[in-house]
Amino acid sequence: MRTRIFLTAFLFFLVPSACNPFQTADGELHSISLTTKQAGFAQAGHSFDFKLVQQVSACSQGESWAVSPISMQFLLGMLLNGARGDVAEQICQALGYGRDEMDEVNAYLHLMMKELAGMKSGSRLSFANAFFADKQIPVEPAWKKTTQKYYSAFVENLEMANSLQATLRINRWCKDKTDDKIGNILDENTTYWAALLNALYFYGEWEEQFLLSETGQHFFRLETGTDICVDMMKMEGKSVLCSENDYCQLAKLPYKNGQFSMVVLLPKEGIAIGELIRQLDSEEWSLLNAGGHRVSLDLWLPRFETSCSIEMKGVLQGMGIQFTEGDFAAISAHFPGFDIIKQNTFITVKEQGTETAAVSAALLSTGIPHFTEFRADHPFLYFILEETTGTILMAGCYTGIS
Length: 402
Hints:
single chain; alpha+beta; Antithrombin, Chain I, domain 2; 11-stranded mixed β-sheet; 6-stranded mixed β-sheet; disordered N terminus
């Protein structure tokens, strides 16, 4: 019997899967080899990812959102190298690192950045890091050396105070590193003294693309119960890896070569998207992904685009990191810390595939599924991931409201 899936209100995750290494065109398996210690860091990272999703969701006020957990992990890694005192302990606790493990943490994050971006996956993934500071903020040589060695960070001192030119320069860097998808990370009407940045860009074409001729208007039910019309992509008889639990149905949609995939979580009837998010943690995620079975489906997924700017300081405070008490003298002597932590994201999902980008910034300024229908016509979660490590590049919620 053919199952029908309509993706409506959902969560999506862009991820690499830890249990399904893909085969390259030459038949060889491609996976990231982690030591026991690094595998522990990766597992702690998954816990961080879902706590981050829960915190962002709590601040979303019903609108669609997208967040990059891995970009935030890289930003916090660079911050941790410059942090001292309470804020260093808080970052370690949030990420699951030991305070005396910095060399191992840096080596792990360096490995992940290099290996994820270097995969011959049929998709395009890149990362970039930079630190821009006013000339009155000389960078400590040790911190500069560490960020350049492990994070390939570009470090530059320039005239930033009351300088529109410096603001435009930094915004241009963000655009260049995200294929023009993320710009204006700095407000042109604000004076900045320092900016620590991580940029991510991903483009992947579906393993099997939707036909443009099959896309048409279809009702999508908002959480309020109101129906709106959206462009719904459709594919008949699609073989999809699926699973379910008491709260949701899961469908995994691979990109070319299978190294990366989008995982869509569709709440079951009577389950609000917020309730699903509250139930979702790394353990539940592992169970959902481990229990999959391939089924033939009629797949319906909205064509959508989401862009947002998330004030991350409050989000991270909800996870125990109090930047108001931050000591970052290891970055620069007498450095006052960062008063703005933010992440700007962009994602577009269409017939050919998915394009997504993020810039994370720290700124100084003043069983076999038995369901017969998977219909994404109400809010859902989505995740984009790499398949051999489970690294979540992007997580988001499509509610129908931009």
